[in-house]
Amino acid sequence: MNIIIAGAGKVGYHLAKTLSILHDITIIDKNSKAILKITTL
Predict the structure, then answer these.
(1) What is the Cα–Cα distance from 30 to 18, expressed in whole angstroms?
(2) Can you give the pTM of this predicted structure?
(3) Distance of CA 38 to the CA centre of its chain
């Protein structure tokens, strides 16, 4: 399943971390540092 998460804060980070095990995740956020942190999962 493809999932889009708006926001890469604490909740978005944990959602992406959990859901990325079985799904394709796309994250949208203005903060590029937050996106970079999530992409290193």
Answers:
(1) 22
(2) 0.78
(3) 6
